[in-house]
Structures are given as C-alpha cells and as structure tokens.
C-alpha cells in the first residue's frame, strides 16, 4: 500500500490522556473520538482488529465453536424473562421505537442466545453446542475513560455453550480456557488467568484473563511461589491469630474530641491501629424495602463490597449517607460503633474475631469505647470475610505471601449453570425423557480492549512495535528523498518483490521531510523497516528489526546488500 493513498492522521506532539495506549492511538492516527467513550477505528486500527479477530476465529473453530451473528437491538421482554431488565441497572442502554416498545442495545447476549437455542433445540442429543459472535456491544458508562479500555461502545467476542450435564460444561470450559491462553499468546499479550467475581453476568465459577499493565483498572494478587492468582475482589485473606488478649476489662467510654478517622483515634487513645475498629453502615433493598447493615473491620482494613453483597445476598449496596447515619444512631461518621446496636445486623470481619480489647465509636459524637470485647459487647455478631486482602498477607490457596500487580481485563469465562435456562425455560429432554434446563457457559474477549492492551505492552513513550501476528503491515519501506529517481525506482521494485513473496508492505511515498517520515514510522509501529537512502549507491539499504523494542534502535539497524534484503525479511519472519 502506498502511504500517500492511506488515511493515517498522525500527530506530532504528545497528548495528555489518562492512559498510554489512548495517547498512542490518537498520536498514531488509529482512532478518532466521536463522543465520550465512542470512537471511530481508522485504517491502521481496523487492520489490526481484523488480524486479532482472525486469530480468535481460528482458535474458536479449533474447539468446535460455531460463528453466528445476533442482533444488537434486543427487546425488553427477553431481559424481563431473565430478570435482568431491572437488575442490570443504569449501564444498560435503553431506547424506544416509534411504537413505544422498549429495547436495549446489547452489552451481552445471554438472553438472545438462550431464546434462540430454546426455540430450536429440544433433545439432549443435540448437545453440547457452542456458538460465538464478534460484534459491537454497548454499556452506558457513567465515566468513560482510558480510551478503548472503558468505552460506551466496544467490540467483543462472546461465546455461549449449552450442555446436558456439569461434566460436559467443565470440558468446554477447560477447552475455552486453554484456547484463550493460545489467543492471547498469539496476539502478543502477557496475560494471567485469575479467579474472579461473576458480577451482573451471573454464575458461581469464573476466571478473568488479565493483561499485565501499569494502567490496569484491576489489581491482581498472586503468589510468586505457586500458580495462585486472583482478582483482589475475590481473594480471601488468611488472618493471623490475634496476639495474646489477656483478661477482659470493663467496657469504658472515653472522650475523643475532634478526632474521627481510625488512625487519628488510635493515636489519640495511644493504641495500635490493629486494636482500633472501623464501622461502616450500608443500605440495600430486599423486596423493595430499604434495609441497613453494619460492618465492623479492623482500623487499617477496607470493606470488600463484593463480600458484603454476598453476605447480605443482594446484588448492590450503597454507603449510608451522613443524614441517614445521624437519623439511625444520633451520631455522625467517625463516632459510630456496634455496642448496644440491636436495630440492624452486625457483620464482624474475621480479622477481629474474638478481639477482647478493641476500640470502637460510642454512637455519641466525640466519644469512643475502649476495652470492647467482640463476643461480650456486640449483639449476635455475624463473622465472615468482609475485607480486601493486603499485600504481604497469605491468601486462601496461596503458599506464600501475595504480591500485587495491575492488570487489564481482556477476557473472562463463566460457568453460568442454569441461571438463564431456568428463568427462560430453555429445556431439553434428557435420556430418560424428562424435561430439564440446559446447563450453560459463556466466554468473552474484549477485542477492542485487547487492541489497547497490546499497545500498553508494546510501546515506549514515542514509539510502538506491533507483534508480528497482528501488525497492520509486515514491512515498512521508507524513502527519505522522493526526488531521487534512482532510489525511488528501486523502492517500488522492492515493494513489488516483497508483495510477490506474500508480504503486506507499506511504502512511504509521501513528499515529506525525512524526519516526519521516521517519526510517523515509529508511531505506526510496523516491525520491519527498510530505509532506502544514500547507501543505495553503494549497493546497500538500511534494515531495522524493531521487534526488540526496548533495545537501542541503533542495535537493531543493519546495512544489508540489495541482493540479500528479501532473504533478510524472510529470515526475520521465520
């Protein structure tokens, strides 16, 4: 392809963005923002996306997953069947047609695929079956950010499998799990599969595939001495035994003027933060009735809302407001505590189970209790894991203290069970002639997210190098001086020769300064570069293998004789 004929609107200057990949995609002319969280994919990005999708299709076919295309526009009635029309919340993009009928723009396709299979498959003999698609999805993000990493419109591969029993689901789940590793390895991503939470999708067994990156929205905790890895949201901390507690002491209320934060109160009372509690009040709904619950943590711990929601058996919680807290307790934040509270359930984290000398708020502004004995002074404490793990702690399942890294979620696999098939009555006859709900799995890859994640892992401040498997072009020919007819003629002869050998080639035939061409080439990111300049008269061209991105560019440049350049390209791609 002649670069003068392609649309690559590169930018010279750095752009201030909230992620490296977003800035690189804008500078290299890959995307253009249309609205917040909505982007056009320009030619270079589209070519890379096509290559990523081709790899996904190959690996899906290798495990007998069949491609389909489902509608983006989904009727409200299907979502009501699954009970997700109300549960999904504000992130579901909803609209009405001219007749007043309600629709959603699909963020996922569990409802549509379940309806499709329900209507067509009636016998277990047709199972298992796995169907997938690659298409745009929509989510009404309250705060789109990080470019393609969190947008309102995004490209996704979603697959769905249907089974007669758990053993069949487990086999497909394992096949998909390993296929995902192959896909991410082929596109050049360093990923790690971690145990995760299923969120709005549902199911009780799931893994996320996390691309390691500084900009990662998720924190991964992993054990450097074993295969253990988990999203921090699902990691269960192993609590160390409490130090010797000694004899219980009488409960005592003390004045704590003008101190509210746990660390401040601990310093004022001259106790360690480990002997200070943190009180949080959450609100939630059950059958449209507003309820409240109290969570008690150690002073230096943070509430894990996923664990809290599981304990309450609800899908969402919110922190109570200051006005609500004042109405419930007669005190404000910083002075709350569980002593003498009997009008809401009290959940106490296992890290302070059995503590006999902890300090808590007294539910009177400016006062705290000391010498609180959890089992003596709190009515019916409900113990459990309610906090986030901290770096350096053991997790349930780890062999050594965990470490933290940041990651970008690029894929997730779920065992859905009968969540959708039961509510939507997607049933088949089993081998005994009895109608049973199909057992389901679903499996997603964020295709546009994968594009951004690859860039995060394969760029420096001012340059990008695509992995060979997904590069938009295999070779980039640079002509520093278009006015030199001799080098220009040879460049186009080489261009044709490389194309005849099966390579996808971009030749920079623009009438631009050499510096502009080299800067653009660094941004475009094609891994092999051939510069035809002054050395041509001596029978050589400059060949640059940019795959070793983090080495000095000078280390990757070679002068290659003209007659050997095609063979050099071949050797680089072997």
TrEMBL record:
Task: Spell out the reaction equation it catalyses.
Answer: tRNA(Pro) + L-proline + ATP = L-prolyl-tRNA(Pro) + AMP + diphosphate
Gene Ontology cellular-component annotations: cytosol
Q: Which UniProt keywords apply?
A: Aminoacyl-tRNA synthetase, ATP-binding, Cytoplasm, Ligase, Nucleotide-binding, Protein biosynthesis
Q: Which domain of life is it from?
A: Bacteria
Q: Which residues form the Aminoacyl-transfer RNA synthetases class-II family profile domain?
A: 37-480
| A Pfam short name | HGTP_anticodon
- What is one GO biological process annotated to this record? prolyl-tRNA aminoacylation
Q: Name one GO molecular function term.
A: catalytic activity, acting on a protein
Q: Which family does it belong to?
A: Belongs to the class-II aminoacyl-tRNA synthetase family. ProS type 1 subfamily.
What's written under domain? Answer: Consists of three domains: the N-terminal catalytic domain, the editing domain and the C-terminal anticodon-binding domain.
State the function annotated in the UniProt record: Catalyzes the attachment of proline to tRNA(Pro) in a two-step reaction: proline is first activated by ATP to form Pro-AMP and then transferred to the acceptor end of tRNA(Pro). As ProRS can inadvertently accommodate and process non-cognate amino acids such as alanine and cysteine, to avoid such errors it has two additional distinct editing activities against alanine. One activity is designated as 'pretransfer' editing and involves the tRNA(Pro)-independent hydrolysis of activated Ala-AMP.
Could you give the subunit structure recorded for this chain?
Homodimer.
| NCBIfam families tied to this protein | PRK09194.1, proS_fam_II
Q: What is this protein called?
A: Proline--tRNA ligase
| Source species of the chain | Abyssicoccus albus
Lineage of the species this protein comes from: Bacteria, Bacillati, Bacillota, Bacilli, Bacillales
